[in-house]
Amino acid sequence: YATTIYVPGKPSYDNVIIPANMNPTIAGPITLRGVIYIQQPNNVKFNGNVNIQGTIVTENLGVGTLLTNVLTFSGSGNTTSDLSTLPDLPQFHELRQMGGSFVIAPGFDVKFTGNFNALSGNIVGDRVTASGSTDITVSGSIVALKNTLTLGTSGVITFKAGTAGMHSGLRFSDRWAPVPASYDEVKP
Questions:
Q1: Which of 37, 38, 45, 89 lies in disulfide reach of 2, CB 3.0 to 4.6 Å?
Q2: Could you tell me which residues are beta bridge partners of residue 149?
Q3: What is the pTM assigned to this prediction?
Q4: How far is CA 119 from CA 10, 80, 106, 187, in A?
Q5: Among residues 118, 83, 124, which one has the least CA distance to residue 104?
Q6: In this structure, are residues 44 and 71 in contact, taking their beta carbons and an 8 Å threshold?
Q7: Which of 27, 5, 26, 24 is nearest to 14 (CA)?
Q8: What are residue 35's DSSP bridge partners?
Q9: What separation in angstroms does the CA of 95 have from each of 33, 164, 186?
């Protein structure tokens, strides 16, 4: 779906590709709509007054490390909404039907360090960290694929049920199922 190469300086982008090694800092006022496809390796920063109406996805080629493959969300005045809210335009027709996740970033370190406040959709990365005074409301789940999920914020993190399903946009080959006989639940 991503067809337009990112060129810094525009006020809005639809279905954009951020090429490998570009390492941009995207600061607003700016609007990103549809799919934001980020190639590896890349260190992409979303800083203040960024409106994302869609989903961010990354390649998972195994190129780079969690030091070179980073998505950082910081600053304030940022908003997100899912694919179902896209305008009824030809470039978004199929995407509007998908709903889905905010960030699907295997192979990336996903960081929230500012007031990137209302996040619509699931957040998935090899490592996911919320730090500083971040106040986040997540309509979905946060999944750290390979490292510990770190919620070290002095702010408030609120989870709400996602509107598009439990893990829309994701498929898991395995699942965790508790075995009640293997543990004792402490009751107050």
A1: 37
A2: none
A3: 0.81
A4: 23, 5, 18, 33
A5: 124
A6: yes
A7: 5
A8: 55
A9: 10, 13, 45
